[in-house]
Amino acid sequence: PGRARNLGMLSQVAYQQMNLIQAEELQNQSLAIHQKYKDKTALAGNYLNLGIVCFANQDFMQSKFHFEKARKLAKNEKKLAETSLKTDLDHTYLHYRFNRVPSRAKIITDP
After folding, report:
1. Across residues 23-30, what is the average pLDDT?
2. pTM
3. Of 31, 34, 74, 105, which shows the fewest CB atoms inside 10 Å?
């Protein structure tokens, strides 16, 4: 799990440098490790970050997929609902909901 966290942090650095391909690759590597350990909180964070990267890359359908996976994990995990990740997820949804998104890729399906 420590390696997965490091990969996630490197992904965020790549994202800030707008190296979106590397950011997505690193986030997917982190996701694979978290899936192995079934860490639902970390998985929700991975999916949230992947959604942000895909959105920045204008891959709106994939972004929506990742956001919905993160949201589903947050809803189903009571412990997760009380963390700052849930707040981050809510804020991210609001941010992307009010930005220009093609109608065919509506980010939020249930307000």
Report:
1. 96
2. 0.75
3. 105
